[in-house]
Each structure stands twice: as C-alpha cells, then as structure tokens.
Q: What sequence folds into this?
C-alpha cells in the first residue's frame, strides 16, 4: 500500500506510521499548503509537493491547519474530488468538516440521541449573556473551530463574562456557550478505528480541562458496552471511521459526549496502552482498500 499522509512533514505521526509500515507499505508525508490542482482539456490533476495524489492507494488526513476561508474550502474540495474518483480518504472530507465545526457536530450528536451538554450558539453579547443565565451561570465558552483545549474559557462571573463576550463579538467570533458539567477531573478518550476501540482515562488535578496537551495524565481504561456504543454512534453520525470520542462522566452519574475529533492524535494513547496504534491504523486502511 502507498499511503499519502496530509499533515506535518516532521510530525511524530509521519515518522511513526513509517516505522509501523516496516518496509511493507510506503508512507509519503505531505502538507496541505503544498496542495495544487489543475483542470485542463486532458483531465484533472491533484498534486501536493510534486506528488500526484492519485498515485496513492489512500490519503490519511492527519491535521487540519488554520487558513483563510478560501484555503480551507479549496483543501476540502481537493479531498472531495479524490473521494469522488473512488480514492480512499480517511477521514472523508465531509466528516472532517462536520467534526471540526463544534456547532454542527454537537447538533448531529444530539439528533441521534447521544447525551451532550446544553449548548447555545449565538453572535451577540446580549444573546450570550442570556445563554449564560439560562445554562445556570456556569458555562464553558469554546472557539467554534479548535482542539486540544485551546481557547476554551470557563465563565461563572457575569462581569467577566460580559467583558469576554464584548471582546469576542467585534472579532466576528461565533459564541459557542455550553453548560459546565461538574466532574471529578477526568474524562475518557475512546479512539475508534473502524470496528475497534482503544481507550484511556485522562486526569488533571490542576485544571478542569482534561486534555493531555493541557497537562493531564493518562491511564489505561476498559470501556463498558454502553460507552463503546456511544463512541461508535458518535463516530458514525459524523461519518468518521477514525475518530477520537471524548466522553465526560458527570457527577450527576450521566455520561456526556463532549467532542468528536476527526483528525485524532494517538501518541499519548499508544504510550499509555503500550499498543502500536499506528499499525492498527495501517491495518484498518489496508482492510478498507481490499473491500
């Protein structure tokens, strides 16, 4: 198999996928900024760094870097064209688009019956302040696009919240306001790889955010059938066969699906479980190509 990996040329993931391939498969790392396309009378071409993406058996999307609206749309268009021609793209561009948009992802999760925190998405200071009151006065404000806990703020003081919202609105930000779910400082990351689930518990005693990137520690975790069912349903409703599903056990005894990442990392998970996750990902992609 020849796998094109869209991410960083120097990333741990590109190197680890090459290690896991062990000469059996070829892994070519590329970046989104290298993407180019041509449309001519003789046909079309989609190229990254001089490499014709059609020469790859599959394309793995390992990151979605920031960019202008035009850049992001063009990148998704190229992935969409590859998929429309029968190339395997993991995850599919529509899944990446849905997962990266917190409003759309949360709406889809709720629509299939998965428990999510109460959420209001709005664009004015007045609506945001009303949302804070309606959601109990203790909320988490998140950027609509983002991951690893970046830009997330907990607000439980009206004066502070007013200043935050007044700062964000002139920046043309969409205000994603979500009720804070009291918890014991830990959450669960379930990585869905096709029909397989690998899981760990993340704990952070210094911060209410439980991302490993924010200082949380990780430990192996065996999810029960209900948790596995939630993770599979969450990945399926977004169309992402490779997904990182974050589940938060609340102090109220309920489980909440907080987020679905369609470009999930697995470095911490592999180290925590002692599992060759990169090999599992490669095996899954080979299986999909053979179907």
A:
């Amino acid at each position: 198999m020849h796998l094109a990996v869209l991410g960083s040329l120097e990333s741990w993931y590109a190197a680890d996928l090459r290690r896991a391939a062990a000469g059996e498969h070829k892994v070519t790392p590329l970046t989104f900024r290298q993407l180019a396309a041509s449309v001519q009378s003789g046909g079309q071409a989609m190229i990254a760094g001089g490499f014709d993406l059609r020469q790859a058996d599959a394309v793995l999307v390992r990151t979605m870097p920031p960019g202008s609206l035009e850049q992001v749309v063009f990148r998704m268009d190229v992935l969409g064209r590859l998929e429309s021609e029968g190339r395997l793209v993991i995850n599919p561009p529509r899944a990446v688009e849905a997962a990266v948009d917190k409003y759309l992802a949360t709406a889809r999760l709720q629509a299939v019956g998965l428990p999510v925190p109460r959420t209001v998405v709005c664009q004015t200071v007045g609506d945001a302040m009303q949302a804070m009151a309606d959601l109990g006065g203790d909320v988490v404000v998140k950027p609509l696009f983002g991951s690893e806990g970046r830009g997330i703020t907990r607000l439980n003081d009206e004066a502070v919240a007013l200043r935050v919202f007044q700062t964000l609105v002139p920046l043309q930000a969409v205000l994603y306001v979500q009720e804070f779910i009291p918890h014991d400082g830990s959450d669960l990351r379930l990585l869905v790889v096709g029909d397989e689930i690998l899981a760990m518990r993340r704990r952070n005693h210094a911060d209410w955010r439980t991302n490993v990137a924010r200082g949380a520690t990780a430990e192996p975790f065996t999810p029960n059938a209900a948790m596995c069912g939630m993770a599979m349903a969450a990945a399926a409703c977004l169309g992402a066969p490779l997904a990182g599903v974050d589940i938060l056990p609340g102090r109220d005894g309920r489980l909440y699906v907080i987020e679905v990442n369609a470009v999930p990392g697995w470095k911490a998970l592999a180290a925590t479980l002692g599992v060759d996750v990169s090999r599992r990902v490669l095996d899954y992609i080979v299986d999909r190509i053979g179907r």
Observations:
- The longest strand covers residues 186-193.
- The chain has a mean pLDDT of 93.
